[in-house]
Amino acid sequence: MSNTFAMVTLKSSHFYTSYALQSFFKHTKMEENDQFFLIDNDNNDLENLLVYKKINIVKNNKPFSFAENVNQGINFAKKNKTNLIFLNNDIIFTKNWFEPLKLISKSISIPVSNQLFQYKSECKTLILKPTMNFEDFNENYDLLNDIVLQHKKKFKPQQQFQTLLMPFYCFKIPYEILEEVGYFDDTFGKGGGEDIDYRIRCAKRGHEVNFLLDSYLLHFHGKSTWDGHETVPQTELRNKIYTDAFLKKWGSEMTQVFIIRKNFSNILNKKDLSDLFKQGKFGELIRKLL
Questions:
Q1: How far apart are CA 140 and CA 223, in angstroms?
Q2: What DSSP designation does 104 have?
Q3: What is the per-residue burial (b if ≥16 Cβ within 10 Å, else e) of 100-110?
Q4: pLDDT at 228 (0 to 100)
Q5: pLDDT tens-digit series, residues 123-143
Q6: 4-18, pLDDT tens digit by residue?
Q7: DSSP state of 249
Q8: What CA–CA distance (Å, rounded) separates 282 from 1?
Q9: Of 224, 233, 22, 227, the residue nearest 129 (C-alpha)
Q10: Rg, the chain, Cα only
Q11: Cβ atoms within 10 A of the Cβ of 78, count?
Q12: From CA 30, how far away is CA 35, in angstroms rounded?
């Protein structure tokens, strides 16, 4: 099945977009009918990006939230009956990153990144931390791909796993799931909680959300929101908005486990879910909690 790729660029993180696109088109084999949409969220200068002939530019009339921009991608994918691959713009794509995602058609797939696995190059020139600036990377592409190669050797091909927190920074939703689960809920505010909500809605219908160990990306993390672009009060307000919306929709137990993510052992023990948590079977845990 063909694929629709969608990426959003914002003023707060537009610096990273050119590097994301450069690495994407270098390391991603797109099929003839695949499409790539670059969503300009807040009137950025895109002149230097026009060299990529495969890109379709979409300009928002006003800034959209994360969920609203994903929903634009869903519209494109549903119109063309394709899978959706939605991409943050603060990513460096690596060799063969997309090949493992191509193989998965029954669940949502997310590549792993430096947020989950931190490494150092042998020469210590490149150190992958959970949150990084571009200067930390310093365009060490060869060292990054060497790290990714060593990472893949540690695991068997096609291994998947789940964790409590699974940010949708780069994800593939197969067309069948798009048709069944639908659009992201855009009532969570600027950003936060809508990916967890979508994961829960997928779990209710029996669809899993998995990390893929043999797809590894560098994710700078938070460049469009809290990392240097929000004041502490702004971050606290954004967190409150999506937490309140989540609480209203899913209740206190789900909010404690999946949004607050601490002091919830009593909930798991009361419902006899501790073993599922330890085993990383979060799709099943969600269905039991619901």
A1: 19
A2: -
A3: bbbebeebbbb
A4: 55
A5: 889 999 999 999 999 999 999
A6: 999 999 998 999 999
A7: H
A8: 28
A9: 227
A10: 19
A11: 16
A12: 8
Are 152 and 144 in contact, with CB atoms under 8 Å apart? no
Least confident segment among 89-103, 152-166, 181-195, 215-229: 215-229
**Over the stretch 64-122, which tens digit does the pLDDT of each residue have?**
999 999 999 999 999 999 999 999 999 999 999 999 999 999 999 999 999 999 999 99
Q: Identity (one letter) of the amino acid at 177? A: I
Q: Which pLDDT score, from 0 to 100, does residue 80 have?
A: 94
Helix (H), strand (E) at residue 2: none
Contacts of residue 277, Cβ cutoff 8 Å, sequence gap at least 6? 164, 268, 285
| pLDDT at res. 283 | 96
CA 263/CA 3 separation, integer angstroms: 40
Residues 6+ apart with CB under 8 A from 97: 27, 28, 111, 215, 216, 217
Amino acid present at 187: T
CB 97 within 8 A of CB 27: yes
- Using CB atoms within 10 A of its CB, is residue 158 exposed (0-12), middle (13-18) or buried (19+)? exposed
Burial class of residue 186 in the structure, from the number of CB atoms within 10 Å of its CB (0-12 exposed, 13-18 middle, 19+ buried): middle
Which among 260, 265, 246 has a CA at the least distance from the CA of 165?
260
The dihedral built from the CA positions of residue 131, 133, 134 and 136, taken in this order, carries a sign that is negative
Which of 25-39, 153-167, 221-235, 265-279 bottoms out in mean pLDDT, i.e. has the lowest? 221-235
